[in-house]
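Priority: medium. Attachment 1 of 2:
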């Protein structure tokens, strides 16, 4: 356990958070007159989601000591996430992504090469901080952005395993960062070290080079981890203790923005584990939080609070008077 006078958060995660500019104009970025400014990052999205669901979370990473980096750090802190281990760099800039929706086709342009986040190293880890948590959550994005990023993920997992901290791993395969062939050995190796493995079904088809849903599930069932497989036919698969359970989705009243749904799911699932739920019960909570995220616009802005989740579960209708 940490000897720090302040206890570690329940869940700790780290990775790259980037400034996010979104073109409002449906004619596309080239002709857009204005851009909306916010930020996004799979790991910080998750940390915010966990905090909103009533548990303590910590996020760290490297940001540029620039206006975008300072905006991101203040916003994450403002959501109740511990950012005490985050660092601002005077040498590298904060990464940037620009999103557009031109003629109904959504696309994202990344400006993250040589970003502050990609310069993270194992020296940026606080072993006592990680050892004091209940769950360490890592993603394949951090492993993909640089060799030192991968080394940092591996070092953090080692610290967690030595301390008896559970490891949650979302492969978050990003083909703009590396090819499936490059990612395959790395992500599968990291998955073998996880206690909770949270892939998408399509991701695993690429990583296993397998088209059959059944064969993918059979290979996952052979892993030691509890596997939560997103993206089934209106359901999420749970592989735990040799048993396959199908947990149905919650129907969304409207779908406005699917970005952030996976992070919302993972936040709900991990929060469920902290509440003492079984993996199946935690998956049901994850399905609900994921469905709530896609009904509003934004990477993290629509992540629900625990009060909103309870109201949904209790079917409470809010009426403005």
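Attachment 2 of 2:
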């Amino acid at each position: 356990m940490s000897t720090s006078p302040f206890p570690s958060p329940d869940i700790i995660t780290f990775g790259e958070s980037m400034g996010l500019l979104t073109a409002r104009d449906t004619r596309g970025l080239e002709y857009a007159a204005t851009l909306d400014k916010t930020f996004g990052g799979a790991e910080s999205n998750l940390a915010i989601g966990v905090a909103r669901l009533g548990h303590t979370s910590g996020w760290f990473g490297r940001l540029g000591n620039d206006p975008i980096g300072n905006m991101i750090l203040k916003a994450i802190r403002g959501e109740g996430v511990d950012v005490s281990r985050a660092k601002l760099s005077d040498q590298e800039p904060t990464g940037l992504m620009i999103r557009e929706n031109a003629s109904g086709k959504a696309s994202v342009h990344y400006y993250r090469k040589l970003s502050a986040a990609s310069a993270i190293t194992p020296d940026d880890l606080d072993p006592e901080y990680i050892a004091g948590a209940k769950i360490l959550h890592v993603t394949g994005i951090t492993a993909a952005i640089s060799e030192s990023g991968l080394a940092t993920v591996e070092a953090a997992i080692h610290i967690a395993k030595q301390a008896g901290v559970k490891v949650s791993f979302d492969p978050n395969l990003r083909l703009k960062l590396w090819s499936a062939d490059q990612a395959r050995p790395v992500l599968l190796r990291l998955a073998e070290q996880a206690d909770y493995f949270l892939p998408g079904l399509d991701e695993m088809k690429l990583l296993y080079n397998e088209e059959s849903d059944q064969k993918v599930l059979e290979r996952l069932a052979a892993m030691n981890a509890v596997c939560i497989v997103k993206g089934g036919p209106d359901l999420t698969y749970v592989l735990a203790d040799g048993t396959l359970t199908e947990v149905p989705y919650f129907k969304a009243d409207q779908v406005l923005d699917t970005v952030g749904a996976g992070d919302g799911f993972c936040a709900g699932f991990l929060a469920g584990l902290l509440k003492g739920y079984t993996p199946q019960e935690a998956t049901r909570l994850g399905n609900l939080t994921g469905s709530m995220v896609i009904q509003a616009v934004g990477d993290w802005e629509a992540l629900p609070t625990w009060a909103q989740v309870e109201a949904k579960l209790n079917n409470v209708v809010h009426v403005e008077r």
